[in-house]
Amino acid sequence: MFRPKLPAMPQPTGTVTPPVVVEPTTITPGTPTPPATVPAPTRPTVQLTPGTALALVGGGTAVVLVVGAVLVSLLLAVAITGASVAVCALVIRSLVNADAKRR
12, 26, 59, 69: which sits with the fewest CB atoms below 10 Å from its CB? Predict the structure, then answer.
């Protein structure tokens, strides 16, 4: 009752071909080729002028201000939500206590 029933292995049908024996090949050493030298890629050098440095500083400042404003607004939303839940809890508690005093 508690023994699992294992499926029987089906017998192969048709003709069975024997496995093919692969003969190893011999490796003949050749003359080694010298590694090709890869020239270093030429990249243009970036030169910072006062105008581009000022643009980079301005862009970084704008990114920091935008990310800060988003984070502050998220924190403010969480604080407002928490305060409203606390007010709702106080109102519900006062309603439940007032109803209990009447009975």
Answer: 26
Rounded alpha-carbon distances, angstroms, from residue 12 to 7, 18, 36, 98? 15, 13, 55, 84
The rounded distance, in Å, linking the Cα atoms of 95 and 41 is: 77
Question: CA-CA distance, 5 to 7, in Å (whole number)?
Answer: 6
pTM of the model: 0.46
CA distance 56 to 58: 5
Q: Pick left, alpha or beta for residue 100 (phi over 0 → left; psi -120 to 50 → alpha; otherwise beta).
A: alpha
